[in-house]
Amino acid sequence: MVSIIVAVAKNGVIGDKNSLLWHISEDLRFFKQTTSGHPVIMGRKTYESLGRPLPNRTNVVISRTATAIEGCTVAHSLEEAVAMFPHDEEIFIIGGAQIYALALDIADRIYITRVEHEYEGDTSFPTWDESQWHLVHSERHECGEKYPYPFAFEVYQRAK
Ligand SMILES: NC(=O)c1ccc[n+]([C@@H]2O[C@H](COP(=O)([O-])OP(=O)(O)OC[C@H]3O[C@@H](n4cnc5c(N)ncnc54)[C@H](OP(=O)(O)O)[C@@H]3O)[C@@H](O)[C@H]2O)c1
Questions:
Q1: Above 90 in pLDDT, residue 160?
Q2: Which of 28, 79, 149, 155 could cross-link with 117 by S-S, CB 3.0 to 4.6 Å?
């Protein structure tokens, strides 16, 4: 099963200058808990922004040009990356925008953290047709421990 996991600002922005724009500890914990033990697939730029492979996860980096990245497996297409794992394993597409755009066609589930604040950034989550997806879980927080704005953890399943 292919899952997308993303945190999106109210205006669709997900990043700027190859980094994240907010720090929400609850979201980082959610990301770690949800993806740990599962393969993660990311674009080469997202890998550069992380700067290292994520621990306790098989890291696959998609690139047209890179041939080897220490601690990661390199794939040259999303299809090649997804084909590395059995169908019944939940694999997570962790960004960025270019890879989400490819993955929206094949994903079964989307874990989206809706950050209820607008940010200026150069990278946005691609437009997606929400009518093709069912909201199956939603958990809203008025603010975080150290984050002043509301955010919500939502899970969508592709409508059959
Ligand atoms: N808010 C969130 O949840 C979240 C999550 C992840 C990332 N982000 C943000 O998103 C931004 C990065 O996103 P991005 O869209 O710029 O980059 P990206 O999707 O992470 O990586 C783009 C790279 O992936 C490779 N690629 C793209 N399409 C390909 C294809 N069809 N076949 C093979 N390789 C392909 C290319 O690598 P090569 O150039 O090496 O060929 C391309 O330069 C950063 O700001 C990051 O912080 C936000």
A1: no
A2: 149
